[in-house]
Each structure stands twice: as C-alpha cells, then as structure tokens.
Amino acid sequence: MNFKPTIFAVQAVSFGCELAALFFLARWGWRLDTALWLRGLAAATALLLAATAWGIWAAPRSATRLSDPARLGFELLFYGAAMLALLGQGHTRTAAVFGAVVAAQLVASFALRLRGS
C-alpha cells in the first residue's frame, strides 16, 4: 500500500474530530451546575455512551458499521451533539470552527472515496 499524504491527513483530521467530540461531550457533563458526583457521573455517562455508539456504528473495524447514507446521518447526529454541548456552554466560536472542520473532513472523505463500508 502506498503512503498518500492527502489521505493520511484526512484520516488524521477525522480521528481528531472523533476525539474532540468525545472530549466536548464529557466536558459538557463535567461543567453542569450540580454536585461534584453528579458532574462526574454525567461526564462519564456522556463519554461512555458516545464512545460506545461510535464504536458500534461508525468505527472503521466495527462488524456493525453503518453504510452511507445511514452512517453519514449518525455522524451528523454525533458531531451535532458535540456542537450543542459547546453551544450550551457558550462556546459559539469553538462550535463554529469545529463544525467547519467536521464539514471539511466529511467533504474530503467523500471526494477521496474514503467512505467505503
């Protein structure tokens, strides 16, 4: 297999977006205005639910990975939830930049035909 820098870059950005979304969702739970133990529970629950859903329906080596257009719909919900978590904390600029990066990597993954099931 030949190393292609463009494909590597798109895949690296995609992985970074996945990790960032998980972080934003966990951070949302941690920043809730409630008792410390509830914040910890909310952060852990948000992180575990999101990571489990991604692992089942979108991870590249998952046996149950969705095919497009269902996978695209799942990804839009996943990344949209992370953006809503940012917006709920008042981070509008970060949400906008994150959304733009996600959109760019999705367009690039379709353009480079990286969306195989």
Q: Which geometry do the CA atoms define?
A: globular
Query: Helix and strand succession?
Result: HHHH
Number of helical segments with 4 or more residues = 4
**Gap between N and C termini:** 19 Å
Q: Can you give the helix content as a percent range?
A: over 70%
Q: Mean pLDDT score, rounded?
A: 95
Q: Secondary-structure map with pairings?
A:
Layout: H1 5-30, H2 36-57, H3 70-88, H4 92-111
Helix pairs in contact: 1-2, 1-3, 1-4, 3-4
Structure, described:
The protein is mainly alpha-helical. The protein has one domain (about 25-110). The chain is about 75% helix and about 0% strand. Helix 1 packs across helix 3. The longest helix is centred in the first third of the chain and has 26 residues, at about 5-30. The radius of gyration is 15 Å and the shape is globular. The mean pLDDT is about 95.
